[in-house]
Amino acid sequence: MKKAVIFGITGQDGSFLAEFLLAKNYEVHGVIRRSSTDYRERIAHIEGHPDFHLHFGDMSDSLGIMQVIAKTRPDEIYNLAAQSHVQVSFDSPEYTANVDATGVLRVLEAVRTCGLEKTCRIYQASTSELYGRVEAVPQNEETPFHPYSPYAVAKLYGFWIIREYRDAYNMYCCNGILFNHESERRGETFVTRKITLAAARIKQGKQEKLYLGNLSSLRDWGYAKDYVECMWLMLQQERPDDYVIATGEQHSVREFCLAAFREAGIELEFRGEGIHEQGIDKATGKVLVEVSPDFYRPTDVVNLLGDPSKAKRQLGWNPAKTSFEELVRLMVQADMAKVAVERAGEKVRINLEEYLEKGIVK
Ligand code: NAP
Ligand code: G4F
User: Fold this and answer.
1) Closest Cα partner for 101 from 156, 61, 58, 177?
2) C-beta of residue 300 within 8 angstroms of C-beta of residue 273
3) Which ligand lies nearest to the CA atom of residue 185 in the structure?
4) 141-193 confidence digits (pLDDT tens)
5) Is-catalytic flag, 129?
6) 307, 140 in Cβ contact below 8 A?
7) pLDDT in tens, 55-80
8) Residue 186: CB partners within 8 Å, gap ≥ 6?
9) How many Cβ atoms are within 10 Å of 349's Cβ, its own excluded?
């Protein structure tokens, strides 16, 4: 039985990867942070599985990382832990560097200190944000990097320290240069999930309007569940390497919006330009989407399109498994159901309060 450690187990990708590895009969060790609130929603359904174990640790704490690795002595490590929100990195640049850059070094050094450098394979969650202020479209493994946010600059260090340890110490370390991947488990402040949740809430009368930033930004959006398979495939090759993982298809935030609202049963049309652009409900004439400068970034990455040819050729990975339309559909359907459940819960609570007031129930 192979043993894997996942840093970032509570995140979108960590939860899908844990399910994937358990299905492959791995013993999976996830690293979590202590929090006063419940943040284990994405992994609650696998807690208690006999091959699934959790350990406390933080990417800013070398000792904790070392202890987890010494205790578990894994065959594979997946470093998915990061302050992963680009806009937040402008507010917390030092923290982002500590976790997303130095954190990678801490994992590498812990592996060496534990004497596992010959046996343990390491996956690093690198990112298409490295291309930043893009120098070519589409982007592949040869395209120069031009990071364009504190997040991307931190991830650039992570990328290069992985390459350095591969060359200097002959360690099996890989970078997955993953383009945006989304799902029903995506954090609610990333643009796709923000849109699908708002479309569901607006349709069900729980929200009036959606405020967004740059509607013209272009992304190559894939389905997270398909992407975690690639992380595993990278660690099963004869030699370590770096791979671009993407769909090869590009859409704007505006297009995502149109598709998501359509899926929720609302036909939108966009009118106006820049800060004055609005998304209007064709049936009622109501303005449902507006632009807010609050969601503009000091520097924004606006043209990401990946070329996944190498992953297709060498890993045998299929980038077309889940289409853009299917991705939007599954996210909107999940959010329509989530909002319906919340509304039902609210109704029960209101009824209960009324019954208590009237003395019908005690
Ligand atoms: P996510 O949902 O934000 O999850 C991030 C994970 O990192 C969470 O488990 C989080 O724990 C953990 N984490 C954050 N700070 C930590 C710290 N100081 N110590 C320990 N754990 C910490 O991100 P994701 O979308 O799954 O992405 C996974 C990785 O891929 C990230 O490194 C991200 O930068 C990278 N990436 C993502 C995409 C994408 O489109 N999703 C594309 C390219 C690269 P808490 O739950 O406690 O916050
Ligand atoms: O959904 P986003 O916040 O994702 P972003 O910045 O591309 O970062 C994600 O993907 C990266 C891979 O390329 C990962 F490395 C990273 O960890 C993360 O998972 O924003 C996408 C685009 C941006 O151009 C942003 O300016 O959407 C634009 N946008 C427009 N309105 C918005 C909004 N983004 C957010 N979050 N919220 C808005 O209201």
Assistant:
1) 156
2) no
3) 1
4) 999 999 999 999 999 999 999 999 999 999 999 999 999 999 999 999 999 99
5) yes
6) yes
7) 999 999 999 999 999 999 999 999 99
8) 12, 192, 193, 224, 331
9) 10
292 token code pair: 């807010």
Question: What are 346's two structure tokens?
Answer: 């609210």
The closest residue, in CA terms, to atom 6 on ligand 1 is: 8
What is the Cα–Cα distance from 276 to 335, expressed in whole angstroms?
A: 28
Pairing of strands 278-281, 268-271: antiparallel
The CA distance from 29 to 92, in Å, is 29
Look-up of token digits 């459940």: 341
**Can you give the pTM of this predicted structure?**
0.97
Q: Is 154 helix (H, G, I), strand (E, B) or coil?
A: helix
Number of C-beta neighbours around residue 60 at 10 A: 14
Amino acid at 318: N
> Do residues 155 and 129 lie in contact, with contact meaning Cβ atoms separated by under 8 Å?
yes
The active-site residue, picked from 151, 165, 172, 227, is 151
Tokens 């850059």, residue?
101
Q: Are strands 181-182 and 222-223 parallel, antiparallel or unpaired?
A: parallel
Q: Which residue's entry shows tokens 């990417």?
A: 59
- Cα-to-centroid distance, 190 and ligand 2 (Å): 6
Q: Is 225 in the pocket of ligand 2 (CB under 6 A)?
A: no
Amino acid at 39: Y
How crowded is residue 296: how many other Cβ atoms within 10 Å of its Cβ?
13
